[in-house]
Design goal:
The complex is a heterodimer of chains A (474) and B (137). By secondary structure, chain A is of the alpha/beta class. Chain A has helices at residues 7-15, 21-34, 46-61, 104-111, 154-161, 178-184, 218-228, 271-286, 302-317, 336-347, 350-363, 369-389, 415-419, 426-431, 459-473, and strands at residues 41-44, 73-77, 115-120, 167-172, 187-190, 210-215, 257-261, 290-294, 395-399, 435-443, 446-453. Chain B is built from four helices and two strands, in the order H-H-H-H-E-E. Chain B has a two-stranded antiparallel ribbon. The longest helix of chain B has 18 residues, at 13-30. The chains are: A alpha/beta (474), B mainly alpha (137). Chains A and B meet through helix 9, helix 10, helix 11, helix 12 and helix 13 of A and helix 1, helix 2 and helix 3 of B.
C-alpha cells in the first residue's frame, strides 16, 4: 500500500544503517514531483533537506544515535516558519517572506532527526474548509481529482495520502486537521489546546489554534505528538505533557463507555456517512465498548459562536500585515494610511477580508456585548455541557463531517455554505478538547471520517482508544 | 437591539432564495427546530460597510463593498441565533485551559535572531532602519 514503513520503523532502520536519510528525502521529493497535478505542495526544500539528510547519515556513520525520527521526511503546512525557507500561509501578502526563525514544533521534530522536505498548500491564513481559498491554487483530492481535499490543511492531508511523506503537519482552529483527514482518508489528530507550542506558526484564532499531525496510522500520529508536545517558554499558553507520554499505545475498548453525540447524528447527515458511522459503532460494541446516546443541547449553536469568535481573533491577528515591516507593500502610497489600506486591499484574498470585516464588526463599539461577549458566554455553556457529559462517558464519537468531499467549486460562491462544512468540528476547538478523525470506510468511493473526542488533557486516553478503533475497522 | 430590522420587501428575490436555502441547510445540518424569520434579518448599509473598512484599514472597491454588504448581512443573520440562548449566571470564556498570569523573569535572552536577517524582509529600509511614510504631519 504505502511506500513508507511505520515512522518508528523508518527511524530504527536509519539508526541501524539499513536505510539512508538521503535516499528517503530523494524518494519523498521524487513522489512530490510525480504527483504534481494534485497541487498539494507550494514549495520544496530540496537543498535544505538534502543538507539535513547528509547530517543525519553522518551522525549514524559516526556511531551516534540520530533520534527517534532519524531521516524521516515530512511536509509542513505553509503556515509553519521553517528557518531560511519561504513561508506564505498561501497568501499573496506573505509571498516572498523568508522565515528568519523557526517554529518550536519543527525544532522539536528536527532535534529527533526528522527532515522537512516541502511546504503544503492551505486556504490562505488557514481560512477555509477546502483549500479553494488559497491565494495560489486549489489542491485536489487524492481519491478523486474533481473533488476538494478539505481544509484548511488540505495540502498536508493530500500529501500524506499521495504518499509524498510518512507524515505532515497541519493546524486545527475549527477543524482544519480533522476535516481534510476525513475527506482524504488520513488520520488527523487535534491535541488539547496548548499541548503543542504555537510559536512560529502564523496566527489565525489564537484561543483555538492548535498544531496537529496528519498520518496514515494512529501510532504514527502518537509518535509525532510525543515529540512535539509540552511546555514551551515561547508560548505562554502551553501545558505539560501527560506523564505517561503518547507512545506504546494500549488500545482496548473493553469496559469503555462511549457516548454517541445525538446532535451530530441528526437528519442532515449524509446517509452514506451515517451508515459508516453506525457500522463503526456496531463494531465498537462488539469489541466490548458500552455505547450510549448523549445530548449536548447547545452544540447546534457552536458554529455561530465560532463564526463570531474566530473572525474577531482573525481581525486582530491580521492587523500586523500592514506593508511596513514585512510582506507585500503597495507601490507609491500617498501617505501612511494609504499605504496600510491599499496594501491590505491589494494583497488580502476575499475570505481574509470577509473575516476581518466580520471581526471588526463584532468587536466594534455598540456591538461587542451583543456579539462577541454573548458568543464567549455561550462558549462557557457549551464547555459546561461537555464537562457534564464527560462525567458519564469516557469518550464521545460522531462523524467528522456531515458529508464526503464535495466537488471543486460546489461551495465557493457562498461563504456561509462553506462555513457549514465545519459544523461537527468547531465545538471541540471552542472547548479546547482533544479529538481525532480516523478513516471509517467509504461512501460513493470517498473516505468517511469517524471523530473521537476526549476531555481536556486526556490525549493519552484518546489515542489508546483511537488505536483500538482503528484496529477493529481495518 | 442587535440590528436594524430589514423588511422582507426590500430583499431581492435572489437574496430571499439564498436566505431560505441557508436556513433549510442549517436546519438539516444541526437539527435545530426554530429559526428566525426574514423580518429579523440583519441589515448593513453601504455606510456601515465603509465605516468597517476604514476601521480595518481596507480600501475596498465599489464591487467589494456591495458584495460584503450582502454577505456580511447573511453571516450576521446566521449568528443571531445566539440571541435565543439563555446564559443567565454564566461568565464569558476567553481561555480554555484555566491558565492565568503566566509570567517569566524580565531578562534579556538571546533567541539567535539576527537583526540584519530580520531586516531583509522589510519592504523599505534606510541605514538599517525600517522606513515608513511620515506619521506626524
Amino acid at each position: 500500500m504505502s511506500q513508507w514503513l511505520p515512522i518508528a520503523d523508518i527511524a530504527a532502520r536509519v539508526n541501524a544503517g539499513e536505510l539512508q536519510a538521503v535516499d528517503l528525502v530523494a524518494k519523498a521529493l521524487a513522489t512530490i514531483g510525480e504527483k504534481a497535478e494534485y497541487q498539494a505542495i507550494i514549495t520544496t526544500l530540496d537543498t535544505l533537506a538534502a543538507a539535513r539528510a547528509k547530517e543525519v547519515d553522518a551522525t549514524v556513520a559516526a556511531g551516534q544515535p540520530a533520534g527517534r525520527l532519524a531521516g524521516v521526511p515530512f511536509i509542513a503546512k505553509d503556515n509553519f516558519l521553517v528557518f531560511g525557507s519561504d513561508t506564505t500561509a498561501a497568501s499573496n501578502i506573505l509571498k516572498g517572506f523568508t522565515a528568519p526563525y523557526q517554529s518550536t514544533a519543527i525544532n522539536r521534530l528536527e532535534a529527533e532527526g526528522a527532515i522537512c522536505v516541502a511546504k503544503a498548500n492551505l486556504d490562505a491564513f488557514a481560512h477555509g474548509s477546502s483549500t479553494e481559498n488559497s491565494d495560489f491554487f486549489t489542491t485536489k483530492n487524492p481519491h478523486d481529482i474533481d473533488r476538494v481535499p478539505g481544509g484548511s490543511s488540505g495540502g498536508s492531508a493530500a500529501a500524506v495520502m499521495l504518499d509524498m511523506a510518512p507524515f505532515a503537519l497541519g493546524t486545527d482552529t475549527g477543524g482544519s486537521v480533522r476535516l481534510p483527514a476525513s475527506f482524504c482518508g488520513a488520520v488527523g489528530y487535534k491535541p488539547t489546546y496548548g499541548l503543542v507550542s504555537r510559536s512560529g506558526v502564523v496566527a489565525m484564532a489564537s484561543s483555538t489554534d492548535v498544531v496537529g499531525p496528519l498520518t496514515r496510522t494512529v501510532d504514527d500520529a502518537a509518535l509525532i505528538l510525543d515529540v512535539m508536545s509540552g511546555v514551551d517558554v515561547l508560548d505562554s499558553t502551553t501545558i505539560p505533557r501527560d506523564s505517561a507520554g503518547y507512545v506504546g499505545l494500549e488500545g482496548s475498548l473493553v469496559g469503555k463507555k462511549v457516548g454517541i453525540i445525538k446532535e451530530y447524528m441528526s437528519e442532515g447527515l449524509d446517509p452514506g456517512v451515517k451508515a459508516c458511522i453506525e457500522a463503526a459503532i456496531a463494531r465498537m460494541k462488539a469489541a466490548g465498548a458500552e455505547v450510549v446516546e448523549v445530548s449536548l443541547p447547545t452544540l447546534p449553536a457552536a458554529l455561530a459562536v465560532y463564526y463570531i469568535i474566530c473572525p474577531a481573533e482573525v481581525s486582530s491577528n491580521l492587523a500586523r500585515y500592514d506593508g511596513q515591516k514585512y510582506g507585500y507593500s503597495t507601490a507609491n502610497p500617498a501617505d501612511l494610511e494609504d499605504s496600510y489600506s491599499r496594501t491590505r486591499d491589494e494583497a488580502f484574498g476575499d475570505e481574509a477580508k470577509r473575516r476581518i470585516m466580520i471581526g471588526t464588526y463584532v468587536l466594534s463599539s455598540g456591538y461587542y456585548d451583543a456579539y462577541y461577549k454573548k458568543a464567549q458566554t455561550v462558549r462557557t455553556k457549551l464547555i459546561n455541557e461537555f464537562n457534564t457529559v464527560f462525567e458519564q462517558v469516557d469518550l464521545l464519537i460522531g462523524p467528522t463531517a456531515p458529508e464526503i468531499a464535495f466537488k471543486l467549486g460546489a461551495n465557493s460562491d457562498d461563504p456561509l455554505k462553506m462555513y457549514l462544512t465545519d459544523i461537527m468540528t468547531v465545538a471541540v476547538n471552542l472547548a479546547g478538547l482533544p479529538a481525532v478523525s480516523i478513516p471509517a470506510g467509504t461512501s460513493e468511493g470517498m473516505p468517511v471520517g469517524l471523530q473521537l473526542i476526549a476531555p481536556q488533557r486526556a490525549d493519552r486516553r484518546l489515542l489508546d482508544a483511537a488505536q483500538a478503533v482503528e484496529g477493529i475497522l481495518a | 437591539m442587535l440590528c436594524k430590522v430589514l423588511c422582507v420587501k426590500y430583499l431581492t428575490t435572489k437574496q430571499r432564495a439564498k436566505n431560505a436555502y441557508l436556513i433549510v441547510k442549517y436546519k438539516l445540518a444541526s437539527g435545530v427546530k426554530h429559526l428566525y424569520t426574514d423580518q429579523q434579518m440583519a441589515n448593513l448599509t453601504r455606510d456601515d460597510v465603509l465605516k468597517l473598512a476604514r476601521l480595518a484599514r481596507l480600501k475596498l472597491s465599489d464591487g467589494e463593498i456591495a458584495t460584503y454588504q450582502s454577505e456580511l448581512a447573511a453571516i450576521l443573520n446566521y449568528v443571531q441565533q445566539l440571541d435565543s440562548i439563555d446564559v443567565a449566571g454564566l461568565e464569558p470564556t476567553s481561555q480554555v485551559t484555566g491558565l492565568t498570569n503566566v509570567t517569566r523573569t524580565d531578562e534579556e535572552r538571546n533567541y539567535g535572531y539576527d537583526a540584519l536577517e530580520l531586516l531583509k524582509n522589510v519592504p523599505a529600509t534606510e541605514n538599517d532602519l525600517i522606513k515608513v511614510k511620515r506619521m506626524i504631519g
